[in-house]
Amino acid sequence: MNPVALGFRAHSGWTAAVAVAGSPSKAVVIERRRIETADPAIAGSRQPYHAAQRLSLAKAEPWIARCRERSARLALDAVSAMIADLAKQGHRVVVAGILRGSGRALPELAAILRSHALLHTAEGEFYRDVLAQAIKSCALPVTPAVERELWDRGAGVFHLAKGDLQGRLKELGRSLGPPWREDQKLASLAAWIALAESGRA
Predict the structure, then answer these.
(1) What angle do CA 195, 198, 201 make, to 5 degrees?
(2) If DSSP codes are grouped into helix, strand and coil, which group holds residue 34?
(3) Which of 36, 12, 39, 17 is nearest to 123 (CA)?
(4) Which has the closest alpha carbon to 79: 186, 5, 145?
(5) pTM (2 d.p.)
(6) What's the DSSP call for residue 106?
(7) Are strands 142-146 and 91-100 parallel, antiparallel or unpaired?
(8) Mode of pairing for the β-strands spanning 142-146 and 14-23
(9) CA distance 126 to 188
(10) If residue 90 lies in a helix (H) or strand (E), which one and from where to where?
(11) CATH number for the domain harbouring residue 34
(12) Per-residue pLDDT of the chain (201 residues; tens, 9 = 90+)
């Protein structure tokens, strides 16, 4: 079976997901999809920290825990389904790349709920964390990549100028057609880096 890497770029309530095969000299995107990671049956769950801001601290903690539990299940189901679908096509997922934020530690919940900027930061970490948990539950190694450093990291891994690497990622989407936006490009690069660094490409 052909080795494949998954790549993910998370947003509030959904994630751009891709599957990449190939070698360090050439990548091929064989799958892309949108994964829903917020339960529409739970009002406010797409932005759980924003919704929790309207609650007392005693109620906010279990609310966020409830949203996290449901989002974790949705992420696990979606990642598992993607792996199974790829296996039916003769591909074996061997690693996953996930885009991360800066990695700075968040303060306690009370401080998060007092800051609009921290609400957004916490939600970003929330969705990246449930994805990472789902990937690990599927027994896949996770290669994290800080988003703002991704192009430089890729240029180093593939021994390309950053502009040339950006050109290659742009070309990847031409055969696929739309959507081929920043989400798909960055998720694909994260997957390609993960595959190359795993030694399975």
Answers:
(1) 50
(2) strand
(3) 12
(4) 5
(5) 0.93
(6) P
(7) parallel
(8) unpaired
(9) 21
(10) none
(11) 3.30.420.10
(12) 789 999 999 999 999 999 999 988 899 999 999 999 999 999 999 999 999 999 999 999 999 999 999 999 999 999 999 999 999 999 999 999 999 987 778 999 999 999 999 999 999 999 999 999 999 999 999 999 999 999 999 999 999 999 999 999 988 887 788 889 999 999 999 999 999 998 876
Rounded-to-integer distance, Cα 53 and Cα 60, Å = 7
Would you state the structure tokens that stand for residue 165, as one six-digit string?
């690497």
Q: What six digits make up the tokens of 109? A: 């919940």
Find the domain containing 94 and state its range: 2-198
CB contact at 8 A, 152 and 159: no
Q: What phi and psi, each to the nearest 5 degrees, are found at residue 177? A: 80, 180
Question: What's the structural domain count of the chain?
Answer: 1
* Token pair 């970490």 in the structure block, residue: 125
